[in-house]
Specification:
ATP binding, binds adenosine-5'-triphosphate, four-stranded antiparallel beta sheet, six-stranded mixed beta sheet, globular, alpha/beta, 24% strand
Length: 247
């Protein structure tokens, strides 16, 4: 494929598990600063697509280019370092550490131009922790033990831990599951803010939430794209209503 301006270019991506194609010749392009939502019925292949992009699952064929770099050949670790962050459904925060410490340990080691000047590094990390804490609405909870946060705040903290790495592509699997209505609204605002500086892919079932955040929606069905359009068009699509929205 030729060089493109897309942050992510997925082409003809297929993975088969014992002959069953969970993702079947999928082609999808994500723009810079785009917030894309992926929806579809259970088993459509949504989580598998994120697993393939972050290297957790290896593709059978096809290509995944992130800023024109082929990801299918890289390890999970190398993909993180290339600038792809992934949040799973269950938060993996350190419950017995403070919010501050959770963010601090997520700062990438060996980054920055401070060389061996330890105090400079400390200041750089502290600035970043405070910046991220403000983004995730936890500025007032920096000293709190993470275990004491609400369910929603724990989800935000995990998003914050990913933001510490400043990924250019952030992928979130059902970020508002189990959240209160107010937390959902706050999460929508949060995602609308953070996609100003990066691309975001969200898997979500909550259509009210999807409406608030999606630039475009990709509907997956049996490992293939059934529709890819802005939300209002997707909601009026007969095929989408039949396999998903009508249920
Ligand atoms: N490692 C694996 N081995 C075998 N089958 C798998 C594997 N991972 C996923 N599958 C199958 O691939 C299909 C797609 O699963 P996937 O979890 O991606 O769907 P999903 O769209 O995320 O569904 P849900 O909304 O329920 O999370 C399912 O039939 C699943 O059982």
């Amino acid at each position: 494929m030729s060089i493109t301006d897309f942050v992510l270019a997925v082409e003809d991506l297929t993975v088969s598990f014992d002959g069953f194609k969970a993702v079947d010749k999928l082609t999808m392009y994500i723009d810079k600063n785009e917030l894309r939502v992926v929806i579809g019925p259970n088993g459509a292949g949504k989580t598998t697509v994120l697993d393939l992009i972050c290297g957790k699952t290896k593709s059978t064929s096809g290509s995944i280019k992130f800023k024109n770099q082929e990801l299918t050949k890289l390890s999970e670790h190398e993909i993180v370092r290339a600038g792809v962050g992934r949040k799973f459904q269950t938060p993996s925060i350190y419950e017995n550490l403070s919010v501050y410490q959770n963010l601090e340990v997520s700062y990438p080691k060996g980054r920055g131009v401070f060389g061996s000047l330890f105090f400079k590094q400390t200041a750089e990390v502290e600035n970043r922790v405070r910046e991220v804490a403000a983004e995730i609405l936890l500025s007032d909870a920096l000293d709190m033990e993470a275990a004491l946060l609400s369910h929603g705040q724990k989800q935000w903290l995990e998003i914050g831990m990913l933001l510490m790495q400043d990924p250019e592509l952030l992928m979130l699997d059902e970020p508002v599951a189990g959240m209160s209505a107010k937390e959902r609204d706050q999460t929508a605002d949060l995602l609308n803010r953070i996609c100003k500086n990066r691309s975001v892919i969200v898997i979500e079932h909550d259509m009210e939430f999807v409406k608030k955040i999606a630039h475009k929606v990709t509907v997956l069905h049996q490992g293939k794209i059934l529709a890819e359009d802005p939300m209002d068009k997707v909601q009026a699509n007969e095929k989408v209503i039949e396999v998903y929205l009508g249920h």
